[in-house]
């Protein structure tokens, strides 16, 4: 059996007197889409921040690729291939698609003490990477600020995959998207997963979870109320886990 890419092992997080997460444990496998569900305040964002290195757990361990990891910040998580993709925050709005795709990794040619960007090659590489996950962005020279939320998301996901990302965290990725863009977003996730990347999607939308996730982890008041494979559960059971922390109501 494939070993997990990430194991969350007994993670607890306290903010003063508030316990946001209590002994949370579950595994995430490569090429798997896992939906993280829970009511407001259940602890989803806190868990995502811990996985992405934005906050340390109060106790417990993260084991990534077989080794215990402890991140001092998001840059350290990013260095091993874990990243949160937001719709806007990590793109530079007044730069074009290609510039955003290569941000900090530009291909430069040097000759006789001069250096210049290999624009044509970078554009081609960007085009191929976007096509590789089925993303539709017609004009690669358009500034990102002129693009739709869905297109920005596509650029970030393609960039993540292209530069060797292993585990991507999506926090309510469809919250600001319309119906068509949401459908495309779901298709993109499918493509990303097909590349062997693990995807954790936070969502309030049980329907989306059933459309995209292999497994669902439900948090309730900071604890894991249940972990279910999509084919072994029902809409009713997941809603019961979210609202009461127990599947008994759905039985
Ligand atoms: N920085 C903080 N300081 C104090 N308490 C916090 C902090 N961050 C989160 N909490 C508390 O931890 C608990 C879990 O919050 P969290 O934001 O992780 O939940 P969530 O499931 O993401 O909720 P939502 O769906 O509303 O975003 C809540 O009780 C929240 O008030």
From TrEMBL:
Entry keywords, A to Z: ATP-binding, Nucleotide-binding
Record bears the keyword Glycosyltransferase: no
GO terms, molecular function: ATP binding
InterPro entries noted in UniProt: AAA+_ATPase, ABC_carbohydrate_import_ATPase, ABC_transporter-like_ATP-bd, ABC_transporter-like_CS, P-loop_NTPase
Transmembrane segments: none
PROSITE patterns documented for this protein: ABC_TRANSPORTER_1, ABC_TRANSPORTER_2
A Pfam short name: ABC_tran
Cited SMART domains: AAA
Residue ranges occupied by any ABC transporter domain in the UniProt entry: 6-246
Keyword tRNA processing: no
Protein name: ATP-binding cassette domain-containing protein
Organism expressing this protein natively: Benzoatithermus flavus
């Amino acid at each position: 059996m494939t070993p997990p890419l990430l194991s969350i092992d007994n993670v607890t997080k306290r903010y003063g007197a508030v316990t946001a997460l209590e002994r949370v444990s579950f595994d995430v496998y490569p090429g798997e889409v896992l939906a993280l569900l829970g009511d407001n305040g259940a602890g989803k964002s806190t868990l995502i921040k811990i996985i992405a290195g934005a906050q340390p757990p109060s106790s417990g361990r993260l084991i990534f690729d077989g080794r215990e990891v402890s991140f001092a910040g998001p840059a350290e998580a990013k260095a091993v291939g874990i990243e949160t993709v937001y719709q806007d925050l990590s793109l530079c709005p007044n730069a074009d698609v290609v510039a955003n795709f290569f941000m900090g990794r530009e291909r430069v040619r040097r000759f006789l003490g001069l250096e210049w960007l290999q624009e044509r090659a970078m554009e081609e590489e960007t085009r191929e990477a976007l096509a590789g996950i089925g993303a539709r962005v017609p004009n690669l020279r358009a500034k990102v600020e002129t693009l739709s939320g869905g297109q920005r998301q596509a650029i970030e996901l393609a960039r993540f995959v292209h530069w060797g990302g292993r585990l991507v965290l999506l926090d309510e990725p469809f919250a600001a998207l319309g119906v068509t863009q949401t459908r495309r977003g779901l298709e993109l996730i499918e493509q990303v997963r097909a590349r062997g990347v693990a995807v954790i999607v936070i969502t309030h939308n049980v329907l989306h979870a059933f459309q995209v996730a292999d497994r669902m982890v439900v948090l309730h008041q900071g604890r894991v109320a249940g972990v279910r494979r999509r084919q072994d559960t029902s809409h009713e059971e997941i809603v019961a886990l979210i609202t009461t922390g127990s599947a008994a109501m759905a039985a």
